[in-house]
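wait is this the right file?? whatever heres the structure
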């Protein structure tokens, strides 16, 4: 499938992707489109290449073969990363004395993707409050990120990924370490 910049319904096009870790072939000839409005789940056992595929799509790894197009552009030319949210697999350890607050961690998403001020400070604060509320973490906004449980930290990283209202959201095992009540709410 060849995409043009005019194909507004295809957000991601993965074409013939292959990847090896040394001599071990992890992905071979993977091809699929992701259309506007799609929900896609990649399932498989540990070590089967799910995270590797996400990292290739996001340009964090280079495939040994194949191409990825994002919003009609070759991945290597894509630079509108503010349109994409990403929650990696759960971070295993955050220093409990790390000085950033929950609010500051979520706000970092604005700094990372800001070419020039797009929102006023007040608009950013409203977006942060909305994202924290969506994941049930608004009460903790002034707490240090390192003082939270692993599941609470994961919810903060989800808030960080959605605060910019991205066009595309990649979640790599987003509910790992999150309690069952929050998991149920998350998938609603």
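ok assuming it is, sequence goes like this
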């Amino acid at each position: 499938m060849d995409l043009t910049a005019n194909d507004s319904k295809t957000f991601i096009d993965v074409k013939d992707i292959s990847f090896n870790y040394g001599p071990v072939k992890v992905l071979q000839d993977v091809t699929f489109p992701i259309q506007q409005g799609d929900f896609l789940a990649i399932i498989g056992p540990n070590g089967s290449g799910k995270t590797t595929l996400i990292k290739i799509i996001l340009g964090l790894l280079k495939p040994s073969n194949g191409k990825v197009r994002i919003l009609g552009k070759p991945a290597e030319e894509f630079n509108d990363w503010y349109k994409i949210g990403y929650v990696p697999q759960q971070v295993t350890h955050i220093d409990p004395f790390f000085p950033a607050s929950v609010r500051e961690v979520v706000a970092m998403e604005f700094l990372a993707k800001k070419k020039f001020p797009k929102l006023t400070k007040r608009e950013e604060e409203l977006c942060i409050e909305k994202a924290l509320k969506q994941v049930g973490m608004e009460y903790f906004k002034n707490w240090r990120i390192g003082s939270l449980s692993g599941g609470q930290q994961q919810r903060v990283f989800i808030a960080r990924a959605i605060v910019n209202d991205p066009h595309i959201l990649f979640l790599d095992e987003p509910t790992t370490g999150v309690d069952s009540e929050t998991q149920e709410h998350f998938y609603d």
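The domain at 10-79 is CATH 3.40.50.300 (Rossmann fold). so i think its the right one actually
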